[in-house]
Amino acid sequence: MIFVMIAIVVLIIVLAKLLESFIEKKQGQKFGEQVGKIQRMTLIAMFSAIAFILMYFDFPLGFAPPFYKLDFSELPVLLGSFILGPVAGVLIEVLKILLKLAVKGTDTALVGEFSNFVIGCSYILPASLIYGLMKDKKGMLLGLLSGTVLMSTAGCFLNAFVVVPKYAEIFGMPLSTIIGMGTKVNKNITDMTTFIAFAVLPFNVFKCIVVSILTMMFYVPFLMIKKQVVKSKS
């Protein structure tokens, strides 16, 4: 299982590199030309630390089981990927998870952390791709919308076939017990299909909408940060 997780992480990094190369080819400028290596490393570390801290401020939502908690850690990941590119966004996701594991450890045998990474990347990669090609407010909005669609879809499949079954296996409980946690908050949840439809899907959509709104609210400050970063490089 560990080897599969590592292989998927590597594949996502490779995908991010391909997307970044595509953006650079279309724009005629490399991300490394805008930001120096030391500055890039500093920004990645800073965004990772902020994302890690934001993971502590999580809370459940009333329409999903309590182990699904909303946090805003994807906000600095998004901003970092918009400034530094898709590869940096993935690295920020990785470092965020590693910091969490180093400080708090895991109580899900890495399943929860792996899910958080994959679902997070499914959100930031299309968002950073589209914004990288358009580089304006419309591009950011379209990127966030596409990221919302992909993340919501990926979240449904990952929870149905990996996360929820593995949670049941790790904690030594029947799958029906986890489904029952969903039934307590929504009586329409009676099986895996309805669990995904009435708990997982709305949770991920709601999370994406909230984070997207916050990202758009930070658009003007974001442009100022980006301008300052490029200016300091020159």
Q: Could you characterize the architecture of this molecule?
A:
The chain is mainly α. Helices cover 81% and strands 2% of the residues. It has ten helices and two strands. The chain has helices at residues 2-27, 31-34, 37-55, 74-84, 86-104, 111-134, 137-170, 175-185, 192-217, 219-233; strands at 59-60, 69-70. Strands 1-2 form a two-stranded antiparallel ribbon. Strand 1 and strand 2 form a beta hairpin. The mean pLDDT is 90.
Q: How do the helices and strands line up, and which of them pair or pack?
A:
Blueprint: H1 2-27, H2 31-34, H3 37-55, E1 59-60, E2 69-70, H4 74-84, H5 86-104, H6 111-134, H7 137-170, H8 175-185, H9 192-217, H10 219-233
Antiparallel strand pairs: 1-2
Helix pairs in contact: 1-5, 1-6, 3-4, 3-5, 4-5, 4-6, 4-9, 5-6, 6-7, 7-9
Task: Return Rg in Å.
Answer: 18 Å
Low-pLDDT regions: none
* Arithmetic mean of pLDDT: 90
The DSSP helix count reads 10
Order of helices and strands: HHHEEHHHHHHH
Termini separation comes to 45 Å
Widest sheet, order of strands:
1-2
Find the count of extended strands (DSSP E, 2+ residues). 2
> Major sheet, described briefly?
2 strands, antiparallel
Structural class, from secondary structure content?
mainly alpha
- What share of the residues lie within helices? over 70%
Work out the strand percent: under 5%
What sort of overall outline do the alpha carbons produce when their principal axes are compared? globular
